[in-house]
Amino acid sequence: MLSQAMSDRLNKQINLEMYSSHLYLQMASWCAYQSLDGCEEFLRLHAQEEAEHMHRLLSYMHETGAFVVLGGMDAPPTQYESVKMLFEKIYEHEVHITRSINELVHFANNEPDYSTLQFLQWYVAEQHQEEFLMKGILDKIKLIGTEGQGLFLIDQEIGKLATSPAKETTALTGGGNPV
Q1: At 122, is the secondary structure helix, strand, or coil?
Q2: Which candidate, 57, 48, 84, places its Cα nearest to that of 158?
Q3: Residue 94 annotated as part of some ligand binding site
Q4: Percentage of residues in the chain with pLDDT exceeding 90?
Q5: What is the pLDDT of residues 93-118, one digit of tens each?
Q6: For residues 46 and 40, what is the distance between their CA atoms, to the nearest angstrom?
Q7: Which sites bind Fe cation (predicted)?
Q8: DSSP label at residue 130
């Protein structure tokens, strides 16, 4: 059984994951409008992944007999100056999510709620991969640039990540698993 304080914090994370899904779906729409088909597909799939993160939390709360409260959310931004700015915003958002997960882990450890602490370890590893992936995309953008054919190449590279999600991190680094 979850404490009310833990339940409240997990509900907050559920809503944050739901917002993440909407944010990435909106960003995918911006990319589609800019004819960045690879980025659009990558972000649309990423939106689905964030929704899965929300559902995983929701299921955990149901398993523990806690009540899930879905709240309202602000609409995500709709306009970006460039694909570089868009991925900078994504990276900032992933850092924010990591901070939120770390706060949950800290709370679960101090409460103590070892079952939730164990459950949250998956999110800790997932966030490490997310930050690593987004930093890798930003590094590619910096390396290739977005002028002229650079934008086309970036879109192609990011599109490759969408077609092989299991290889997201290795496609950017040329090697091993970051976790």
Answers
A1: helix
A2: 84
A3: yes
A4: 89
A5: 999 999 999 999 999 999 999 999 99
A6: 10
A7: 17, 50, 53, 94, 127
A8: H
* Residue 174, phi-psi category: left (phi > 0), alpha (psi -120 to 50), beta (remainder): left
Specify the pLDDT at position 148.
Answer: 86
Answer yes or no: pTM beyond 0.70.
yes
What residue has token string 């995983």? 56
Whether residue 52 has pLDDT greater than 70: yes
pLDDT at 163 over 90: no
CATH number of the 4-173 domain:
1.20.1260.10
CA 125 to chain centre: 12
Residues composing the chain: 179
The tokens for 120 are 């949250």
Neighbours of 21 (CB within 10 A): 21
Say if residue 46 carries a ligand binding annotation: no
**Is 79 annotated for ligand binding?**
no
Nearest residue to 34 (alpha-carbon basis) of 81, 77, 76: 81
Query: Is 130 annotated for ligand binding?
Result: no
Lookup result for tokens 């409460």 = 111
Answer positive or negative: Cα dihedral of 88, 52, 72, 107: negative
pLDDT value at 150 more than 60:
yes
Q: Is pLDDT of 13 > 70?
A: yes
